[in-house]
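yo

u said u wanted the structure for the complex thing, so here. seqs first:
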Amino acid sequence: MPNEDNGALSPPADLSVELAGVRLKNPVVAVSGCFGFGREYGEWFDLGRLGGICAKGLTLRPRKGNPPPRAAETPMGMLNSVGLQNPGVEVFLRDELPFLRRFDTAVIANISGGDPAEYAEMAGLIGDAADALEVNISCPNIKAGGLQFGADPALAAEVTAAVKNRAKCPAIVKLTPNVTDIAAIARAVWDAGADGLSLINTLTGLRIDPVTRRPVLRMNTGGLSGPAVLPVALRCVWQVSGLGLPILGMGGVSTALEAAEMMLAGASAVGVGTALFRDPLSALNIVQGLAAFAAEQGIARIRELTGGIRPWET
Amino acid sequence: MLTAILQNKAIAKDIYDLRAAMETAPEPVPGQFVHIDCGGGLLLRRPLSLCGYDNGIARLVYAARGEGTRRLSRRRPGERLDMLGPLGRGFVMDSRPALLVGGGIGVPPLVFCADRAEGRVHAVLGFRNADAVCLTEAFASAEVLTDDGSAGAKGYPHEALRAHLQTGDWARVLACGPVPMLRAVAKVCAEHGVECQVSLEERMACGVGACLVCACGVNGDYKRVCADGPVFDAREVEWDA
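structre next:
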């Protein structure tokens, strides 16, 4: 009698990947801003089961964040305007990083500055205490800095070079999709020495209460995330993948098959963020789902998926 | 957590009473909430305060007002319900006498408070009009007010509260309702030097404290309604932030 369950006989797939020189036990990384400093979701599951954690976005000094309301639901997505509320890099290093370090997972520190010097100073303070830096040049929710660095190739390069000058761990630059040509920004930060790319940050959006005629968010506009942005994220990742820089791909991923899509588009690792709000265990389910997908497809090493898209001739 | 809807019926205009199995330890306390997938493919869950908890069954009384709660109101007994919780920090209670002050759909968590109270409690319950009145029978001692006088006395809860604090020996006030009511209640309590705990509401995403969208101004900082609250000391809340 033929064995109809051949998949079960093949050894489990190797889920480990490498992102900008950092080894991850699996490709699934918690997205910055959706995961705090890990303590909350640490109540739900063992953080050591994640490939990595991008910690909540940091600034040099503590930041209070934007006034509420900070969130609005949208069709298959949500807007947020948190505005980088965080305790500052020094509190992170003293009070939060030691907690994250208890788990066998890569820790990526997300940094935002008001000018290139501030980014550099933060990179210096963090040193090699994190496994990598995620250089946020794409936050849509702060008035100065943020998006403006990510929308201009020269400024993006300047921030990247300043960070690289001080960084003692790999620097992954987080890009915004709110630009005409994301590949041009990617090239600029590559030229400036970036070790990898992270994309996409949120898309700017707006919702209005038709009765009061007021925007739902107190800051009027916010950043769109969730399933609605998945195709935009896949397109952006694919567009910048030609450079050959390692990519942490994110944007709307909520299932293992979507994570596989993100890898096929060119990502070495995949961020899971907004999906956690619906299901705190979604990131773990994606890890398991990727293993199942690999077994089903006869893929021995999950990293083989990266860049495996077979685009049609057009 | 997947559970089953045991009951989901209207008890007043657009007000529903839902019961669902919820196995949890330790048991939820009054003021805590559950985060519910209302169904119909909405991305975000909706936080609902617990109205009660007995023998492994959670009671939720909610207004079908927004898109999520309207979808929830159409769910039927026997259907599966995806619910996280109990979440958040609830009311702090002891055996001292407490006044419960509720406005509209802020009344349900106070039912839970009355049920768990170890000391004397009295409820002051305000509603827009007679159509909105609900749950008053759940309190052993309660008075009802409406904005238009169509049921109970005409007036606002903070006015009735003032009379109680002038004459009675109440140790604390536990309040839930719309922000203008809570602000007025907090002011009356401050005037009389009486402790006041308020349950706040804000748009939420994660519900567990990770995403920081449900911010409220407390003591010069933004706190998380979902994890630092929803119950806060009224003196620390920045009502006009």
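Chain A has a mean pLDDT of 95. The longest strand of chain A covers residues 106-111.
cya
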